[in-house]
Design a protein that fits this description.
Length: about 250
C-alpha cells in the first residue's frame, strides 16, 4: 500500500506541473464565467442557463483532463526511462498501474473541486441557494471521469498515446450515444451494421451518468438510480483496471 501511495503522489506532482492541464482549467474557468453572463442576458431563464453551461463545462473539461492524463503519463515514464528504474525495484506492475490511476484521479479531483466551488458560487449568486440535485449530477460526472481515466489507462498499458486517446475518446462518444445506438439496433436490417451496434452495447453506457439536463429541469433523481449508477460504473472501472494491469504486467519493455 505504501508503494502504491508513493507512486500516486509522484504521479499527482508530475501531472499538476503540466501546463496543458492549466490551459484546460483556464478555459473551463472562462466557460463558467460565460455561463453567468449568458444567464443574465436570457429573459427568465438565467439560472437554467448558468446550471446547464456550468454542469456541461464540469463534465466536458473533466473528461478532457481524464483522457489527457490517462494516455500520456505512462508513456512519459517510458519515454523518460524512469519506468525502468521503478520496475527494477521490488514493486509489482499492478501496483504501478493502480498508483498511476489514483494519482490521475487526485489530479482530476483537484480540478473538479475547484470548478465545483466556482460553479456553486455562481449558482448562489443568482438564486441564493443551491439544490442537492446539482451535486448528484456532479457526483455522477465524477464517476464518469473515474471510468474514462481507467479506460485511458487500460489502452495506454499496451499502445501509444495517440491510439490510446483515439480509442478512449471513441468509447466515450459511443457511451454518450448509447440510447441512439439502441434505437438504431432495433431499426437496422443490415447484418454487419447490426453486429457492430450490438458489440458496442457491451461498452459502458455513459448516458446513465449524464443527468445534467434532468437536474436543470428540476427532475428528482431517486436514490436507487444513484446507487445503481455508481455500482454499474464501479464494476466497469474494476474491469478496465484489472485487464490494464494484466496487459501491462505482460508487456516487454526491453
Amino acid at each position: 500500500m505504501h508503494k502504491l501511495l508513493v507512486i500516486a503522489q509522484n504521479t499527482f506532482r508530475e501531472a499538476i506541473r503540466d501546463k496543458i492541464l492549466y490551459s484546460i482549467f483556464f478555459f473551463a474557468f472562462l466557460l463558467l464565467l460565460a455561463s453567468l453572463a449568458l444567464g443574465e442576458l436570457s429573459l427568465g431563464h438565467h439560472i437554467k442557463v448558468t446550471k446547464d453551461l456550468g454542469l456541461s463545462a464540469i463534465s466536458f473539461f473533466g473528461i478532457l483532463i481524464a483522457i489527457f492524463t490517462g494516455v500520456s503519463l505512462v508513456h512519459k515514464e517510458i519515454d523518460k526511462r524512469t519506468l525502468y528504474t521503478l520496475l527494477s525495484k521490488p514493486i509489482y506492475r499492478s501496483q504501478f498501474v493502480l498508483g498511476k490511476y489514483f494519482g490521475m484521479l487526485l489530479t482530476a479531483l483537484t480540478q473538479l473541486a475547484l470548478l465545483t466551488a466556482l460553479f456553486s458560487l455562481l449558482v448562489l449568486y443568482q438564486q441564493k441557494y443551491i439544490e442537492s440535485a446539482l451535486f448528484q449530477a456532479i457526483l455522477l460526472y465524477w464517476m464518469e471521469i473515474m471510468l474514462v481515466t481507467s479506460i485511458a489507462l487500460f489502452f495506454s498499458s499496451f499502445t501509444t498515446p495517440f491510439f490510446s486517446g483515439v480509442f478512449t475518446f471513441s468509447i466515450f462518444v459511443i457511451g454518450r450515444l448509447m440510447p441512439e445506438i439502441e434505437i438504431l439496433l432495433k431499426r437496422t436490417t443490415n447484418p454487419l451494421i447490426w453486429l457492430l451496434l450490438k458489440i458496442s452495447t457491451f461498452l459502458p453506457n455513459l448516458d446513465y451518468l449524464n443527468i445534467g439536463q434532468r437536474v436543470v429541469h428540476q427532475e428528482s433523481i431517486p436514490f436507487d438510480y444513484m446507487l445503481s449508477s455508481v455500482t454499474y460504473t464501479t464494476l466497469y472501472i474494476v474491469l478496465f483496471l484489472f485487464f490494464g494491469s494484466l496487459l501491462f504486467s505482460r508487456r516487454d519493455f526491453i
